Every structure is written in structure tokens, then in C-alpha cells.
Amino acid sequence: MKHCYRCGESKDDYRFRPNQPYWHQWCIRCERSPVGNFPLPETKEDVW
Questions:
Q1: Which Pfam families does its entry note (predicted)?
Q2: Which pTM was predicted?
Q3: CB-CB contact of 29 with 6 (8 Å)
Q4: In degrees rounded to 5, what are phi and psi of residue 10?
């Protein structure tokens, strides 16, 4: 489990891109969410 620094949720590792620095770990959903339109619904494409 990893912790997303944008949405604050703890999620399984497959919800994150590999090789992100530990000080900047965003889940795939947060990476595709534009600023101001947050949060987008989580879909099956949000897995690595």
C-alpha cells in the first residue's frame, strides 16, 4: 500500500506508476485529474 500525496488516500501499489520518488507519489487517478476538476471518478484505466 502506498499513500497518495494529492488525494490523501492509501491505495494498492498497482494504482501508482512505478519509479516515482517517495516525496511525490500521486496515484494514476490524480495524475490524470486536471487542476480545478478534482477528483475524477476512479476507473479501470487507473491501474498500472
A1: NinD
A2: 0.71
A3: no
A4: -90, 125
Domain count of the fold of the chain = 1
Residues 6+ apart with CB under 8 A from 27: 2, 4, 6, 7, 9, 11, 15, 16, 46
The amino acid that residue 27 corresponds to is C
Q: How confident is residue 44, by pLDDT bands cut at 50, 70 and 90?
A: confident
Largest Cα–Cα separation, the chain:
27
The boundaries of the domain holding residue 24 are 1-48
Find where cell 480545478 sits.
36
- Whether residue 12 contacts residue 45, with contact meaning beta carbons closer than 8 Å, is answered with no
